[in-house]
Every structure is written in C-alpha cells, then in structure tokens.
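Box S1 | Example of a co-folding query
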Amino acid sequence: MTINGARILLPTVYNCLIFAILLPLFSTADDILLPLDVKSKCPGAEDAITKAVTNAVAGNKGLCAGVLRLHFHDCFVRGCDASVLLDNSTANPNPEKDSIPNKTLRGFQVIDAAKIAVEAYCAKNKSCPTNGCDPVVSCADVLAFAARDCVKILGDFFYDVYSGRPDGTISIAQEAVDNLPAPFFNITQLQSSFAKKNLTLEDLTVLSGAHSVGVAHCSSFEDRLTSINSSQINVAFANSLKQKCTNGNVTVPQDYVTPDYLDNQYFINNLNNTVLFFSDFALRTNTITEDYMEQFGNNYKLSNPNTWKDKFKCAMQKMGRIIELGPNQGEIRKVCSAINVS
Ligand code: HEM
Ligand SMILES: *[C@@H]1O[C@H](CO)[C@@H](O)[C@H](O)[C@H]1NC(C)=O
Ligand SMILES: *[C@@H]1O[C@H](CO)[C@@H](O)[C@H](O)[C@H]1NC(C)=O
Ligand SMILES: *[C@@H]1O[C@H](CO)[C@@H](O)[C@H](O)[C@H]1NC(C)=O
Ligand SMILES: *[C@@H]1O[C@H](CO)[C@@H](O)[C@H](O)[C@H]1NC(C)=O
Ligand SMILES: *[C@@H]1O[C@H](CO)[C@@H](O)[C@H](O)[C@H]1NC(C)=O
Ligand SMILES: *[C@@H]1O[C@H](CO)[C@@H](O)[C@H](O)[C@H]1NC(C)=O
Ligand SMILES: *[C@@H]1O[C@H](CO)[C@@H](O)[C@H](O)[C@H]1NC(C)=O
Ligand SMILES: CC(=O)N[C@H]1CO[C@H](CO)[C@@H](O)[C@@H]1O
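Box S1 (continued) | Returned holo structure for 2-acetamido-2-deoxy-beta-D-glucopyranose
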C-alpha cells in the first residue's frame, strides 16, 4: 500500500490490525496520519525523541505519568493537535492550560526538551537560514511519541505510533472543561464523553488503566471521603487517604500497590474498592465495563497476564489518531508553547 510515495507499514501489534486496515477507508484522519511520516522526513527522529524523553525524566519518572495525561488531555480537546501546550497569548488569550482540569498537568518541560532535541537532530545535515530550519516534527507528534516512550519507561512495553498530526492554532480553556471527563462522572457521563471521541466502553476501561501510575491531588477525590460509602470505597483505605489529605495541598499515588509501574494493578485495586476517583469506581456499575475489569484484573492469573497491555497499546494508538483538524489546516510549530508567527 502506498500513499504519497511512502510505503505503509501496519502496526506490529496484531490485534490492532482490523482497526488499522479499516480506518483508512473511512476516516480523513488517515489521509493525514501516516506510519512513516516522520520516519521518512527525518530518519532517526524517533530515537532522538526517545533519548530526550529518557533524559528529561531521569530524575523524576513521575513526569512520565504527567506526559501520558498530557497526551490524553490533548487528544480529547480539538483532537491530538498540541492545543494543550499553548501558552496564554494575544492569539489565545484563555488557553486550555488555564482551565481547571489543567491546573494539575505536568511534564511540559519533557515535551519542550524532546521538541528542541528532535529539531536540532533533524537540522544537522541541512544548511539553514539564520533564523533556523523549518521545523519537521509537529508538537502533537512529539507528544504522541513521548507518551509512547513513557509507556515503555513506566510499563516496559511498546507500541508503534503513527505520525503526521498537524499542530492546531486554537486553544480555549472552556473546551477543556466541556470535553474532558471529570473524576466525579458516572458511567453514563463517561461513556458519552468517550463516545464523542469515537471511543468505546472497552477503550474507556482499558485507558483508565493509566491510573496505575502517577498521582492525584486530594481535591480530585475528597468528596468521597466526607461521608464514606463502604460499598464504593474500602473504609480502611478511605481513612488512610483522609489522614494524608489533612495536610492541605498534597498528592497521593493513584496505585498504592505498585505506584510507579504501569500495569494491570489498577484493575485489581478497583475490584477491591481501593482506587481514588468516583469515575474509577463507576466502571463497576455497568455490566460491560465490569466484565472488562474482571478480565484485566481478577482473572488475569487464569488468562494471559498481558491481556490488558495488548489492549492498552491499541487503545493508545486509537486515542492518538483522534484528528479534528481538516485537510490543510494547522501547521508544524517551531515552539510548542506558541503558534508560529508568519
Ligand atoms: C476516564 C476518565 C478519566 C478521568 C475522570 C480522569 C481524571 C483524572 C484526575 C482527576 C487525575 C488527577 C489530577 C490531580 O488531581 O492531580 C488524573 C490523573 C492521571 N490521569 Fe486520568 N482521568 C481519566 C482518564 C485518563 C486517561 C484516558 C489517561 C491516559 C491514557 C489518564 C492518565 C492519567 C495519569 C497518568 C494521571 C496521573 C498524572 C500525574 O501523575 O501527573 N487518565 N486523571
Ligand atoms: C492572558 O494574558 C492577558 C494579557 O496578555 C491577561 O490579561 C489575561 O488575564 C491572561 N489570562 C489568564 C487566564 O491568565
Ligand atoms: C547526516 O548525515 C550523516 C552522514 O551522511 C548520516 O549518517 C546521518 O544519518 C544524517 N543525519 C540526519 C539527521 O539526516
Ligand atoms: C449520571 O448523571 C447524569 C447527570 O447528573 C444523570 O442524568 C444520569 O442519570 C446518571 N446516570 C447514572 C447511571 O447514574
Ligand atoms: C467519529 O467518527 C465519525 C464517523 O466516522 C466521524 O465523522 C467523526 O469525525 C469522528 N469523530 C472524531 C472525534 O474522531
Ligand atoms: C452507596 O453506594 C452504592 C453502590 O454504588 C449505592 O447503591 C448506594 O446508593 C450508595 N449509598 C449512599 C448512601 O449513597
Ligand atoms: C484490599 O484492600 C485492603 C485495604 O487496603 C487491603 O488490606 C487488602 O489486602 C486488599 N486485598 C486485595 C486482594 O488486594
Ligand atoms: C499545590 O502544590 C503544587 C506542588 O506540589 C503547586 O504547584 C501548586 O501550585 C499548589 N496549589 C495550590 C492551590 O496551592
Ligand atoms: C501547568 C499549567 O500550565 N498550569 C496552569 C493552569 O491554569 C492556571 C490558571 O488557571 C495557571 O496559573 C497554571 O500555570
């Protein structure tokens, strides 16, 4: 299969094949997203990003949890277009960054470092004007690659990432509030939030497994501690959270068993009522999502322990292909925090 002269390689993850083959027929996203886009424009670009990400998180792997969440927040608002990375400016006077869900985002410096490193790498053999070469890798792609690298760093598994996402030029705080699911959402609200992005109940359950790494601020779940409902949260667990949260603005790990390891422990915890958010618990109030939960958590010993990991790879690829910019829209930003000046 050939598009624009680039040979299309299908993702190596076999159970994503159906998705990979069907999408090009129906989706404009695939007119843009090519598996080899960055590889053909600048061979070695992915390695340059991986190196920079690895360096940037060396002292604090928690930043990798931040990067995973950044990619999710990016893709859910205007598609994966790096709109989450834009700073306040005249063009975008009230960007996503300034919205409530963003206040706890972290890892921006990882993306900045990777972007600088990859553009420097790709410019190596070129003679560029004094104001620099044209940028080659979009910030949305850098973020998608960095999230993939962080999955490798935190979970020790790997998936291929398609590239060619254009960067958007618009970022609006209210759109983050409107498009991102909140931790108090029930299953109906979660389902509809994901359905708007063409993601299923399975995707919702699988992707929620990212809550096996990183942290949350008490403000994100404290409502569950004021009057403890023992059928929704383990009472001893809730009391231990309560104690930690008396110290004001603190964070607690999402996964108290293996806090730094991206694995299926989230599902085991959830089945034991020891997860932080109501939205996590809510996955157990629907027979479909509850079944997935059992598959990824409880019964993992009986079946393939990699069941969840394989699903997660595919779901991350799928989330990374949410493109809402039309053909010929967008740009490749020079600097991830600002749109290009013409
Ligand atoms: C299903 C709906 C989701 C809701 C309601 C939700 C909500 C939240 C909230 C409230 C936090 C804590 C923020 C804080 O207080 O510091 C958080 C953290 C996090 N979320 Fe989600 N999230 C959802 C889905 C996802 C998805 C799809 C991913 C990625 C694939 C993800 C990855 C993360 C990560 C890695 C963290 C930890 C971030 C850090 O340590 O800085 N979440 N999420
Ligand atoms: C964004 O910047 C403008 C001035 O450049 C300022 O008036 C406005 O308050 C800022 N918005 C936020 C949310 O910080
Ligand atoms: C630059 O050129 C060298 C020597 O031809 C080559 O090995 C290297 O891959 C090139 N680097 C890039 C980024 O194209
Ligand atoms: C979820 O919340 C919405 C809005 O409050 C409500 O209309 C809906 O009935 C709730 N669904 C469930 C399953 O509780
Ligand atoms: C969801 O799929 C429909 C039908 O293929 C498409 O029109 C729409 O743009 C997609 N939405 C997103 C957010 O990808
Ligand atoms: C406690 O949680 C259960 C399970 O979600 C629910 O059915 C019940 O109504 C809740 N009780 C209170 C008092 O909110
Ligand atoms: C369930 O959670 C409780 C409270 O944290 C803990 O003591 C117990 O070991 C957990 N059980 C399982 C099977 O994980
Ligand atoms: C909470 O603490 C973090 C650092 O852990 C800090 O960045 C943030 O500004 C604090 N938020 C508030 C509301 O004090
Ligand atoms: C990480 C980040 O950019 N956080 C911003 C979120 O929004 C507040 C304002 O509401 C900014 O002060 C933070 O810098």
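The longest strand covers residues 215-217. The beta strands are 2-3, 6-7, 215-217, 251-253.
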